Automatic annotation (TrEMBL):
Membrane-topology descriptor: Peripheral membrane protein
Keyword Ribosomal protein: no
A GO molecular-function descriptor: ATP binding
SMART domains listed in its UniProt record: AAA
Keywords of the record: Amino-acid transport, ATP-binding, Cell membrane, Membrane, Nucleotide-binding, Transport
Domain ABC transporter positions: 1-239
Taxonomic superkingdom: Bacteria
Subcellular location: Cell membrane
Protein name, UniProt field: Amino acid ABC transporter ATP-binding protein
Organism (species): Lactobacillus leichmannii
Family: Belongs to the ABC transporter superfamily.
């Protein structure tokens, strides 16, 4: 998946300035940078929740020119191939955990209920929540709710899972439960794009780091070099110092 020469303006504020980025399949790309730099706007552009006014988007054989009207069929294709996990989980409150995970596969993918439930149970076991299938979201901790949201996303078999600060609402112990699941997915070569402020986690999970500042890409590459003490970009050194 890649975006090329993408610009996005809100009012008269250009928040993405002609940026190009590649998100390699089977890899974990981590976006870091100060608040307000444009990370969420990039992520939301990848599943078309935001529409940049110019630039291109490529995913497999699908090509979208943001300066043209996007076809409904293309929007559906993108939504099928990407799954978004939000900071605030966005679980359906009136559904059990199991129903939260089976809803999409049954309603959108047309899966048989029994098959969807069997897979949902496997996925809940994978995220360590086999015993919570019949619980309602309000009875879960934040870390458990976020793991349900990840299982729900996996149930749709997206090519890419996009996660926008998935642990920033969580206390450190609960955050760890979620990060362990993401590390496991990364190990299994699930394609991931993660926005996070947790640099220790970013360093561990990332195949590739993207540093965004003020709507521009200041770094795009190897995680090791990004975190190296002798990184020759003063802006990045300042950012790393401000976060540690
Ligand atoms: P980040 O995720 O890095 O904190 P965002 O992508 O959320 O940054 O925001 C980038 C900039 O765009 C910020 O200045 C933000 O205020 C602005 N912005 C984001 N969404 C909107 C919107 N819907 N309307 C107006 N401005 C927005
Ligand atoms: Mg954000």
């Amino acid at each position: 998946m890649k975006i090329t020469k993408v610009s996005k303006t809100f009012g008269n504020h250009q928040v993405l300035k002609n940026i190009s980025l590649d998100f390699p399949a089977g890899k974990t790309t981590v976006l870091v940078g100060p608040s307000g730099s444009g990370k969420s706007t990039i992520l939301r552009s990848l599943d078309l929740l935001e529409r940049p006014e110019s630039g291109n988007f490529d995913l497999d054989e699908l090509h979208i020119d943001f300066s043209q009207k996007i076809k409904d069929a293309d929007i559906l294709t993108v939504r099928k191939k990407t799954g978004m996990v939000f900071q605030s989980y966005n679980l359906f409150p009136h559904f059990t955990v199991l129903q939260n995970v089976t809803e999409g596969p049954v309603q959108v993918l047309g899966k048989k209920k029994a098959d969807a439930e069997a897979e949902a149970k496997q996925l809940l076991a994978k995220v360590g929540l086999a015993d919570k299938a019949d619980f309602y979201p309000e009875t879960l901790s934040g870390g458990q709710a976020q793991r349900v949201a990840i299982a729900r996303s996996l149930a749709m078999h997206p090519e890419y899972i996009l996660l926008d600060e998935p642990t920033s609402a969580l206390d450190p112990e609960l955050e760890m439960e979620v990060l362990k699941v993401l590390l496991e997915l990364a190990k299994e070569k699930q394609s991931l794009v993660i926005v996070t402020h947790n640099l220790a986690f970013a360093r561990r999970v990332a195949d590739k780091i993207v540093f965004v500042e003020n709507g521009e890409i200041l770094y795009d590459g190897d995680a090791g070099k990004f975190f190296a003490q002798d990184n020759d970009n003063q802006r990045i050194r300042d950012f790393l110092n401000s976060m540690s």
